[in-house]
Amino acid sequence: MLDLREFIAAVEAEQPDRIVHVDRPVNPAEFEVTAILQQLEDAGRNPMAVFHRPLNLFGEVSKFPLVTNIYAERERCAQALGLPITDAKFPLSLEYGRREKERIPPTVIGRDEAPVKQVVQVGEDADLRQFPIVRHHHMDPAPYIDMTPIMRDPDSGAYNGAYLRMMYKGPHKLGLHMSPRHNWQITRKHEERGLPTPVAIVVSHHPAFFLGTLNVAPFGDDDYEVIGSVAGQSLRLVPSETWGEEFMVPADAEIIIEGEIPPNVREVEGPFGEFPGTYGPQRLRWIIDVKAITHRRDAIYQDVFVGHADDWIQGGLPKEARIYNRIKGVVPGVTAVHLPTSGVCRLHCNVSIDKKVDGESKQAAFIVLGEVDMIKHVFVVDADVDVFDDRQVLWAVATRVQADQAIDIIKNAKGNTLDPSQTDPIMTTKMIVDATKPVQRPFSERILVPDEAKARVPIDEFVRAGGTPAPEPVDVAAKAAPASSRET
Amino acid sequence: MAQIFYVTCPACSGRFPCHPELWQVEYELLCPFCQHTFPQEASPLIITMTGEQRPGSQFHRPGGPGTANRTTEPDPSTAAESM
Questions:
Q1: Does the distance separating the beta carbons of A179 and B82 come in below 8 Å?
Q2: How would you classify the pairing of strands A236-240 and A244-250?
Q3: What percent of chain A has pLDDT over 90?
Q4: What confidence tens digit (pLDDT) does each residue in A258-316 have?
Q5: Would residue A209 be called left, alpha or beta, if left means φ above 0 and alpha means ψ between -120 and 50 degrees?
Q6: Distance CA A349, CA A344 (A)
């Protein structure tokens, strides 16, 4: 059974320096949660944060503690999927890619067994103000729930989940932003039939659930099956309050908000601080009328620190294995792929290859750009460069790139409208930086200190920190002299 | 974002970005700083998508302000999910 509190306890046990607790009351609606996260980030830290006494929208200490920044380090993502934290770099990406291809059907359980049904609120009792909803950045017009609405395709019956931003508009109302992808398709189908679109917002759950919703399965695949596979176990489901068995919801969630999107209704929504670290503009968007709220008795409220590592790492992780597997078929020497946080895990891609033939680096880059249209700049490096280390990638650019030979500019390619640098609504300019050494001629070797020397003098045994006492000096002469010479 | 226009709130003078789909439509805009709602022509300064700066009243809008509900077709340029 997936349980968020078990995950929090596991992080506390295995990575105690990567979790912080805030015991004093803070007001999430007045930026006080993100203010603490930002200060930690400015200090170079990205711990998971548990706020034990956040205020709700009534201004009272909420009965729901708040957890956020769960995904801001890959080690916690690895832990969420049951992997050792030492696998947090590329092995995590490969494992995600492997699981994403599988399917595990969900398991239906009864209401009495479902933790999310411990408290049920309908009608006027289903009041959003009970939650410590976070207002993230200064130009957000209201607090936003930035977790995962689930919708169901009216034709195939397949469920789809995706992170979407939802603006608090009133005790029983949310604004909803969607881009033309799967949930938008489902809503469009309902609207064409004059029907409201049922939606169940999973506000909090074990992080494996949310990592599973980030899959890139085609429209029509059931996300509950994919989520189960990514999580490594069958997802438990229970009938919803509003639609019964016609719409199943995750039984082990902490909090679920059920609502409907009325057809052909739009209201202004935004601006909102988005993934690039800039604001998406105010728009005309859908609304959700809240019908019911169900939650665990001791439920925990969850939030994503959007526009920061908590948001970025989730977005990049599912793409890395997919890109790697595509490159592998054409450039067998590919060793790793990484979408770095320095490129918001979407706009930049680092690829390392064990190059055998000049030109392979371009082939790899073309595949990256064709596979994920959001990626704008590709940096291809040799296998001796760690693609997870920006300094090493930039070192390769500094020492292995001549701009007139190694950089290609590709105009009028499909981009992402949220990229603030774009001057066209659709099109962007892509760049390939080939920071690999040539194969066909000699090139200066990279310096290195021999591994066997490092093994002889491990720093744990040889290095003493400043301010610590020196060990007792050894009388080397006394130890070396024969016994007779020491008699007096 | 490729194309946005900036609107200044008549109540608090805060400036915020709007999508072109909000250009000269019947919806009132919402100031994210003070929550004031206002029609576009009430803005003391609008910076258009091309950088032109004028008071909102100088941009003609047929039909006048209102809060009519209507369907909008999705902007095909918003092709990518944020995740």
A1: yes
A2: antiparallel
A3: 90
A4: 999 999 999 999 999 999 999 999 999 999 999 999 999 999 999 999 999 999 999 89
A5: alpha
A6: 10
Residues of B in contact with A282 (CB under 8 A): 16-19, 22, 29-30, 32
The H or E element spanning position B23 is none
> The pTM is what?
0.90
The DSSP secondary structure of A182-235, one letter per residue, reads: HHHHHHHHHHHTT-PEEEEEEEE--HHHHHHHT--PPBTB-HHHHHHHHHTSPP
Residue A317 half-sphere exposure toward CB, CA atoms < 13 A: 35
What is the residue-averaged pLDDT of chain A?
Answer: 94
pLDDT digits (tens, 9 = 90+) for B10-59: 999 999 999 999 998 889 999 999 999 999 999 999 999 888 999 998 87
pLDDT score recorded for residue B70 = 36
Residue A207, classified by CB atoms within 10 Å of its CB into exposed (0-12), middle (13-18) or buried (19+), is: buried
* Residue pair A273/A139 in contact by the 8 Å Cβ criterion: yes
- Give the pair of three-digit tokens for residue A181: 């992808």
Contact B77 A265 (CB under 8 A): no
* Alpha carbons A44 and A32: distance in angstroms, whole number: 19
In sequence order, what are the residues at sequence separation of 6 or more whose Cβ sits closer than 8 angstroms to the Cβ of residue A125? A293
Cis peptide before A271 (omega within 30 of 0): yes
